[in-house]
Amino acid sequence: MPAPCRSMIFASLLIAALAGCTLVEQNRQIDATQGRIDTKTVQLTQAEQEQAALQQQMQSISTDLHQKQMSNKDLERRLAKLQAANQQAATDNDAQRARKRKLDAELTQDRAALAALSQNTTMDPFEQQRKIDQLKADIKKRLELLAQMK
């Protein structure tokens, strides 16, 4: 076979391989984006539920004010309690969001490491399988932690 033909065949195979790698990377990015969207959707639902509960408490206080004409001290005490609950909810949400972001980042790193390890052809197969099993266990543990946070 002439050298130009071999070069063209090699170039064609190289282009096809590069296109496949690009598609795999785009698919991984889509999966990661969908995971972030799902996380944000859950966070939004939780925040809306907390907001609804706080709104209901405020409505209850307003109703009590009009119906019972509560004293200033009682009103201040209930408002302080509501503000403290509101601040605690905001603090808890920030801490929980930070922990979720950290777990998501660790999961992304583990998935990338697992993909790289799975494609490694130079490593001892037994060592490679041991590392893959360890990464899978780490991923499972992080997923369980994320599930507990919901």
TrEMBL record:
Q: What is this protein called?
A: Lipoprotein
Signal peptide (from-to):
1-19
Domain of life, per the record?
Bacteria
Chain intervals with Low complexity compositional bias:
83-93
Print the keywords alphabetically: Signal
Q: Does the keyword Signal apply?
A: yes
Organism source for this protein?
Answer: Caballeronia calidae
Q: Where is this region: Disordered?
A: 83-103
Task: Give the matching PROSITE patterns.
Answer: PROKAR_LIPOPROTEIN
The reply to whether Signal figures as a keyword in the UniProt entry is: yes
